[in-house]
Write a structure and sequence with these properties.
- With 124 residues, the protein is mostly helical.
- The protein is 36% helix and 5% strand.
- It has a two-stranded parallel ribbon.
- The longest helix has 22 residues, at 95-116.
- The chain is globular, with a radius of gyration of 14 Å.
- The two termini are 13 Å apart.
Length: 124
């Protein structure tokens, strides 16, 4: 979600990519809450962090402690930022509660990106 939000509002000023510790499929709830903003995730390609040359990036934002540890293997510590964001996939409850959890994460990411990158100005 973070990379898609940055691409959406970054006006092409940022080179972005997204990866996880483990390659997996696109979460359908991510697709739903991003589509609410008019963002299609159709071109998103889930991949592993090890498949990206992160040395080409000035900043890597890790959203899990495990991702931060893995990223530090490839980039100096000062290039890694860890944002302690709730994992919406851990929400238990009905569909509405799960979607609300994903929306909250989406909005928190958008706000943090806007604060971190002043050029990124649109907050939901």
């Amino acid at each position: 979600m973070a990379a898609a939000l940055l691409r959406l509002n970054g006006n092409g000023e940022f080179a972005t990519d997204s990866a996880g510790i483990y390659e997996g499929g696109l979460d359908p709830f991510v697709e739903i809450v991003m589509k609410e903003l008019g963002v299609s995730m159709d071109l998103h390609e889930p991949k592993e962090l090890s498949s990206i040359d992160i040395s080409k990036f000035d900043t890597v934002i890790a959203l899990t402690p495990e991702a931060a540890i893995e990223a530090r293997k490839f980039l100096p510590h000062d290039g890694i930022e860890f944002w302690d964001i709730e994992n919406p996939s851990e929400e238990r409850g009905g569909r509405d509660a799960i979607l609300e959890s994903y929306r909250n994460v989406r909005n928190e990411l958008a706000n943090r990106l806007a604060d971190r990158f002043p050029e990124f100005h649109e907050k939901p």
